[in-house]
Amino acid sequence: MNPNLESDLLRTFVAIAETKNFTRASEIVGRTQSAVSIQMKKLEEIVDGKLFDRGPRGVTLTSSGEQLVKDAKRILSLLDQAAASLQSDPLNGTVRIGIPEEYGGTFLPCVLSRFAKTHPQAEVTVRCAQSAALNTGLEKGELDLVVLHEEATKIGGEILLNNPVVWITSDTYRQHECVPMPVAVYDSGCWWRDWALACLEQQKKDYKISYISSSTFGLQAAVSSGIAVGILAQSQIPPDCRELTPEEGFPRLQGTNIVLRQRVQHECSTKSGMAQAIRDAFQASRA
To answer: CA 222 → CA 56, 111, 128, 232, distances in Å?
Structure first.
C-alpha cells in the first residue's frame, strides 16, 4: 500500500461510507459528484484494492473498505484535534442548534462536529425536528439558531438554498401509473400536504391517500418501497427514485427555501461562528 494518503481523500471516503451515496457525500465535502468519483478512483489506486460495491440502493463497503474506514476516522479525528489546538482564538460558550430531521444524517452534522472539534471549549447541542417545532423552539428561547423549510413566497430568515418541491416515484414500481394513484403525504396541517392535494385536485387525478407520515424519512421509505408516489424537496430524492415531470402530468409545486434564523438579540461570537459554519455548508453544497 502506498502510505501517502491525503486527508481530503479520506474525508470524502468517510462521507461516502456514512451516507452510502456519492451524491450526498459530494454535498458534505463540497465537491461535484464527478470530482468525488475521481477522488475515490485515486484512493483505490493508492490502496490497490476495491473499496465499494455499488447496488440499487446505494454503495456498501468491501472488506478492504471496512478496514480502511476505521483507520480513516481515527486519522481525521487526530487531524481535527491538531487543527483545534492551533486555533489562536477558539470560541467558547453554548450554542443550541435546530435542524430539520432530513439533514440529520447528511452534511450538517459533519459540519457541526467539525465546529466542535475546532472550538473544543464551545458547547454545541443539536435538536432534529420538523420546521414548525424548531421555529417554536427559537421563539421560546430554547434554541439559538435554526435551519427551516419555508415557502419561497415568505420572507422570514436568511435564505441558504432554494430547494424546489417535486413529485417523485420509484423507478421500479412506477406507482404513478396506477389508477387510482396511491399517494404518500405528511400529516394534516403541513403546507406541503396542502400543496400536493390541491395539485391533484387541479389536475383532476384519480388518487387515494395510502400513506401518512410525520417524517421525511417515512415518505422516502413509502416511495422507495413502491407503496405510493409522494412529494419531497428535490435534494431529498432517494437514489432509487426519480422526479416526475410536467410532461407526465405532474407540474412543479411552489418553491421552498431553506432559511437560517437566529435570536439576534442574544448574538455572541460563538453563535455567529456557528451561523457562518452553517452558511459555509450550504454554500459548499451548491458548488
So the answer is: 16, 29, 21, 12
pLDDT digits (tens, 9 = 90+) for 118-175: 777 888 888 988 888 999 999 999 999 999 988 877 767 888 888 889 999 999 999 9
How far apart CA 153 and CA 168 sit, in angstroms, is 23
Q: 3-state SS of the chain: helix, strand, coil percent to 5?
A: 45, 25, 30
Identify the three-state secondary structure at position 186: strand
Determine which helix (DSSP H) or strand (DSSP E) holds 116, and give its type and residue range: helix 107-118
Phi then psi for 129, rounded to 5 degrees? -165, 180
- State how beta strands 52-55 and 58-61 pair: antiparallel
d(CA 130, CA 216): 9
Asked whether the beta carbons of 233 and 227 are under 8 A apart, the reply is no
Q: Quick one: what percent of the chain has pLDDT higher than 90?
A: 43
CA distance 245 to 25: 26
- DSSP H or E run through 81: helix 63-85
- How far is 141 from 121, CA to CA, in rounded Å? 22
Distances in Å between the alpha carbon of 108 and those of 142, 164, 282, 283? Answer: 20, 19, 9, 12
DSSP β-ladder status, 93-100 and 145-151? parallel
User: Residue 168 has which C-alpha cell?
Assistant: 417523485
Domains of the chain: 7-85 (1.10.10.10), 93-162+257-285 (3.40.190.10), 165-254 (3.40.190.10)
